[in-house]
C-alpha cells in the first residue's frame, strides 16, 4: 500500500537526517583536528550564536558558529550552567571551519542532553560564543550578557541531576507535607520555653531523610552568574540528565523549602547550616525574578537595588571562576548608578578599589560594613588597601550592626577622593578606646564582669547598664522573632554584671559549640568583643581593636567605626579602618546630647566643649 503524504514526508525527513548524521560523522572522522580560530565580531551589537546540530544519543557533538546582530532581533535560546572542573577535556566540532572547540565535561553533558535528534537548536553559550582569550571582546560581550539573557526566547538551565521527573515530584510533595506539619511548631516557638528544643530535634530527624536537598545541592545554585541568567529570563526550562522538568516544579519546591528554613531556629542549628543556606539563596533568587516579572508589565525591567546592595545581598557566598565577576555579574540586575564597565585587563584589586571609591562618592557607606583591618586574614601580601573589603574573605555584614541603627543619618554623606587609593570622609571623633575584653566567646563575659566590678559603674555615660542590653536586644529582635536564645545570653551578661557571678549556659551543654543557643550567639556576635572608651562609653567592636583606637561617626553612617592612626603626611593624619562598632547611647542620631558643629564657638569654654560640642573633621582613609 502506498504511504500517505504525511508518512512520505516523515520518511524523507528521516532519510535526510540519517544522511546528515552520516556526513557529520564522516567529516569529523576524516579531517585533521585543529583548534577553532575566532574571527573578530563584525559590529558593536554583534554576538555569536551556536547552531547545535542534531545527533543521536552518544554521537559526537557538532555545531556551526554564526555572527548575529542584536538589532536584528535573532531568535535563540541561552544556556545557564555551571562550568564545573576547569579542564577542557571534551570537544565540539565546528563544521563550517572544520575546527575543534574545547569545552568542559559539564558543558559537554549539557549539550548532549539538550541536543535535538532531528533539528538544529540555536543557543547562546558563554564558553563558546565569547572569545575568552580576547580580553577586550570579553569585556564588551559581558556587558551585553544582561540583554542576551533578557532577549532569549528561553533560558535553558542545566542542573546535571540524574533524577527522574516523577521522583522529583514525589520529593516536592514530601516537602509540602513537611511544611504543613511543622506549621504548629513555628506558632508555638514564641510562647513555649522549650518548643525550640523539641522542634529542633524533630527537624533534624526529618530533614536527614529529605532527599530533595540533594536536588538543591548543585553547583548551579552557587554561581554568581545565575542571578542575571535566571532573574532576567523570559521563560525557564529546567533540564536534568533524565529529561526536562515540568514548569513551576522547582519554584514550588523552593517556596516550600523557604517556609521551613527561614526561621531563626534553623539558623541556630549548626548541623543544618547547608539547608538554611540553600533555602535562603534559592528563595532570594526566585523572589527577585518574580519581582522583576511583576514590575515588568510596562515592558521595562525593574532594577532590584543599588549595585552595592546587590553585592552584599547576592554576590557574597556565591562562586565564580574569575573574582572580577563577583561584581560584573550583577551589573545587569542592579541600578546603573556607578557607571562601571567590564574590563578584564584590570586586576581584581584595581576593579574593587574603583568600585569602593565610586560607591563612597555616591554617598553609599555600605561597603564599610565589611571592611577594615583583620590580622587573622591580612598577611601583608594583599594588594588591597585596608579600608576596602577583602574580597577573598568576604562575609555578610555583622548582623547586629547591619543598617539597624542611624547614628548619623541626620547628615548627608560627605566623601571625596583624596589620592589614587584614598578617600576623605567627614565625621566627628567621639572618644578613644581604653579597655577591651578577651576574644573567647564565653570567657570575655567574665573578663568584662571582673573589670566592671572593679569600676563599679559606667563613668561618663550616665546610663543604666541595662540600657546597653535593651538597645542591643532591640536591634537584633528582627533577626530572631521565633528564637529568644541570643536574648537570653545577653540577659545573662547583664545578670552577671549585677550579681558579680560567672555566667552559666542555660542548658549547661557538654561542649558549647554543640548547643544551638551558643551557636546563635556566636553567629550574632561574630568577632565582636566588649570595649570601654576613655570617657566610659560602653561598646562592642572587632576583637582585633587596640587601646587608643578612635571611635568616629561618619556623616550619614548607620554605625560608628573604629579608626587607627597610620601616618601623618604633610600635616594630614591618615587612618586605617579597624571596623564598625556599637557604642551605647550613640546609635540613634542624637549624639548623646552633643551638638555637632563645623567649628567650635569662640565663646565656648573647655568644659562646655567636653560636654556639648563635637567638631566635624575630615578623616583620610588609607
From TrEMBL:
It comes from the Eukaryota. Pfam families: HET (PF06985), Het-6_barrel (PF26639). Residues 76-229 form the Heterokaryon incompatibility domain. PANTHER family: ANKYRIN REPEAT DOMAIN-CONTAINING PROTEIN 39 HOMOLOG-RELATED, HETEROKARYON INCOMPATIBILITY DOMAIN-CONTAINING PROTEIN. This is Heterokaryon incompatibility domain-containing protein. It comes from Phaeosphaeria nodorum (strain SN15 / ATCC MYA-4574 / FGSC 10173).
Amino acid at each position: 500500500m502506498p504511504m500517505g503524504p504525511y508518512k512520505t514526508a516523515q520518511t524523507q525527513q528521516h532519510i535526510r537526517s540519517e544522511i546528515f548524521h552520516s556526513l557529520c560523522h564522516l567529516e569529523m572522522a576524516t579531517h585533521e583536528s585543529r583548534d577553532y580560530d575566532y574571527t573578530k565580531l563584525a559590529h558593536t551589537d554583534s554576538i555569536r550564536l551556536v547552531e547545535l546540530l542534531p545527533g543521536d544519543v552518544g554521537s559526537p557533538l557538532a555545531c556551526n558558529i554564526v555572527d548575529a546582530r542584536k538589532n536584528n532581533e535573532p531568535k535563540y535560546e541561552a544556556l545557564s550552567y555551571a562550568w564545573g572542573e576547569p579542564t577542557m577535556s571534551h570537544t565540539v566540532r565546528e563544521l563550517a571551519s572544520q575546527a575543534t572547540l574545547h569545552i568542559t565535561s559539564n558543558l559537554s553533558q549539557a549539550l548532549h542532553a539538550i541536543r535535538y535528534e532531528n533539528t538544529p537548536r540555536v543557543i547562546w553559550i558563554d564558553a563558546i560564543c565569547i572569545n575568552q582569550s580576547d580580553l577586550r571582546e570579553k569585556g564588551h560581550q559581558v556587558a551585553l550578557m544582561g540583554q542576551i539573557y533578557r532577549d532569549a526566547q528561553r533560558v535553558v538551565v542545566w542542573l546535571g541531576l540524574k533524577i527522574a521527573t516523577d521522583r522529583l515530584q514525589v520529593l516536592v510533595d514530601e516537602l509540602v507535607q513537611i511544611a504543613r506539619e511543622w506549621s504548629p511548631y513555628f506558632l508555638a516557638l514564641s510562647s513555649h520555653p522549650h518548643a525550640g528544643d523539641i522542634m529542633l530535634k524533630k527537624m533534624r530527624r526529618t530533614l536527614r531523610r529529605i532527599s530533595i536537598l540533594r536536588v538543591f545541592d548543585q553547583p548551579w545554585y552557587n554561581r554568581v552568574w545565575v542571578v542575571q541568567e535566571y532573574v532576567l529570563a523570559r521563560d525557564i526550562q529546567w533540564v536534568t540528565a533524565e529529561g526536562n522538568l515540568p514548569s513551576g516544579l522547582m519554584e514550588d519546591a523552593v517556596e516550600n523549602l523557604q517556609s521551613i528554613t527561614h526561621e531563626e531556629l534553623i539558623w541556630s542549628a549548626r548541623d543544618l547550616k547547608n539547608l538554611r543556606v540553600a533555602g535562603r539563596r534559592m528563595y532570594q533568587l526566585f523572589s527577585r525574578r518574580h519581582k522583576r516579572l511583576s514590575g515588568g508589565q510596562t515592558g521595562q525591567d525593574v532594577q532590584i537595588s543599588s549595585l552595592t546592595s546587590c553585592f552584599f545581598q547576592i554576590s557574597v557566598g556565591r562562586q565564580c571562576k574569575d573574582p572580577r565577576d563577583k561584581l560584573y555579574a550583577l551589573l545587569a540586575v542592579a541600578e546603573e548608578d556607578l557607571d562601571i564597565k567590564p574590563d578584564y585587563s584590570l586586576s581584581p584589586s584595581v576593579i574593587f578599589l574603583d568600585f569602593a571609591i565610586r560607591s563612597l562618592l555616591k554617598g553609599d557607606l555600605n561597603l564599610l560594613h565589611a571592611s577594615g583591618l583583620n590580622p587573622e586574614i591580612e598577611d601583608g601580601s594583599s594588594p588591597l588597601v585596608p579600608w576596602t573589603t577583602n574580597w577573598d574573605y568576604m562575609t555578610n555584614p555583622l548582623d547586629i550592626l547591619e543598617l539597624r541603627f542611624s547614628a548619623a543619618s541626620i547628615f548627608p554623606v560627605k566623601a571625596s577622593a583624596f589620592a589614587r587609593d584614598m578617600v576623605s570622609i567627614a565625621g566627628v571623633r567621639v572618644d578613644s578606646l581604653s579597655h577591651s575584653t578577651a576574644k573567647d566567646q564565653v570567657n570575655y563575659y567574665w573578663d568584662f564582669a571582673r573589670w566592671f566590678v572593679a569600676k563599679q559603674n559606667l563613668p561618663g555615660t550616665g546610663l543604666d547598664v541595662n540600657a546597653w542590653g535593651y538597645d542591643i536586644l532591640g536591634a537584633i529582635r528582627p533577626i530572631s522573632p521565633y528564637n529568644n536564645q541570643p536574648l537570653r545570653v545577653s540577659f545573662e551578661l547583664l545578670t552577671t554584671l549585677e550579681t558579680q557571678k560567672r555566667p552559666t549556659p542555660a542548658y549547661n551543654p557538654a561542649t558549647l559549640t554543640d548547643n544551638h543557643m551558643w551557636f546563635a550567639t556566636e553567629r550574632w556576635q561574630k568577632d565582636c568583643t566588649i570595649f570601654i572608651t576613655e570617657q566610659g562609653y560602653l561598646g562592642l567592636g572587632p576583637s582585633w581593636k587596640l587601646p587608643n583606637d578612635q571611635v568616629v561617626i561618619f556623616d550619614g553612617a548607620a554605625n560608628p567605626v573604629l579608626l587607627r592612626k597610620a601616618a601623618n603626611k604633610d600635616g594630614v593624619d591618615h587612618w586605617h579602618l579597624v571596623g564598625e562598632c556599637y557604642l551605647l547611647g550613640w546609635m540613634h542620631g542624637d549624639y548623646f546630647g552633643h551638638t555637632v558643629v563645623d567649628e567650635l564657638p569662640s565663646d565656648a569654654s573647655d568644659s562646655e566643649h567636653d560636654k556639648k560640642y563635637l567638631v566635624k573633621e575630615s578623616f583620610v582613609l588609607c
